[in-house]
Amino acid sequence: MQRYILSRLVQSLLILFGVLCIVFFMLQLTGDPVSLMVSRSASPEQMERLREELGYNRPMIVQFADFASGAVRGDFGNSTRHHQPAMGLILARLPATIELATVSLLMSMFIGITLGLLGGSNPGSLWDAIARGAGLIGQTIPNFWLGLILILIFSVNLGWFPTFGRETWNFLGFIPIPTRSVILPAFSLGLFTMGQLVRFTRSAVLEIRGEDYVRTAYSKGIADKRIYVKHILRNAAIPLISIIGVQFGYLLSGSIYIETIFSWPGLGNLLAEAIGNRDFALVQAIAFFTSIVVVFLNLLTDIAYGMADPRIRYGD
Q: What is the pTM (predicted TM-score) of this model?
C-alpha cells in the first residue's frame, strides 16, 4: 500500500509540473500580453513601460523560473485590475465555490445513488425506467441552459428562490450556513454528476446481483436485506468512490458558467471577470490553483480506492 501511495504521489507532482508549464506557456502563445492589457490608444512608450514593470521584457526562461518559484510560494503577483495579491482574491472567493460544490455533490449523491439503487434492484420496473431516464437527462441537458430555465420558472414566475447572489445564515455568529439561494445553482451544476451516479450505481448493482457469491447467498436462505447491505451495497460503493472524488473536483473547477449565470461570488465568476478584464496574473493563479485542488482530490480518491479495494496494487 505504501508503494501504491508513493507512486500516486509522484504522478501527482509530475502532473502539477506539467500544468505549471501549460499555464505559463499558454499565456505566451497569446502573443504580447501587454498589447492585450492596454487600450488601442496606448503609445509605444506606455506599452514598453508596462512591459518592463511586469517583467515581460526579460528572457522567457527567466520569466518561467520566476513564475514557478512564485507558484511554489503561493505568490502569483498582483492583479492588474484589483491591485491586490492574486492569491488573496482567490482565498476570498474560495468559500463560496466550496459551498456550491459541496451542496451540489450532496444533492447529486442523494438523488443519483438512490435512483441507481432502486433501478438496479428492480430491473424492468417503473423505478428502473425512472433511473434510466434520469441518467439520460442528466448527461444530455446543458447545465447552463437548465440554470436559465430554473431561474425563469422558480425565481421569476413562482418567486420561490432568489434569481442571483449568495445568501448565508451565520450559525453562532461566524459559521456560514447555506440558504435557499444555493439550491438552484447547486442543482444546475450537479445535473451531470447526478446522471453519472445514476448510471454507474445502477450498472454496479445489476452486475453484482449476477455474481456467484450473491447467488450462493440467496441459495443459503440468507435474508434479502442482509445480502443487499453486506454484499451488494458494499461492493457497489467501491467504483463510486472514484466517480465521486473526480466529480467533486469537476464541480469545484467547472462552475464558471453556473456562477456567472447566478452571479455567485465564487472562483468561476472571478475567472470570468479576470478573462474579461485581461487580468492575466489572476487567470494564471486561478488556473493553477484549481489544478492543484483537482490533482489533490484525485490523489485522495486513489488512496481511498486502494484502501477500499485491497486488490489494487502498484503496477496492477
A: 0.81
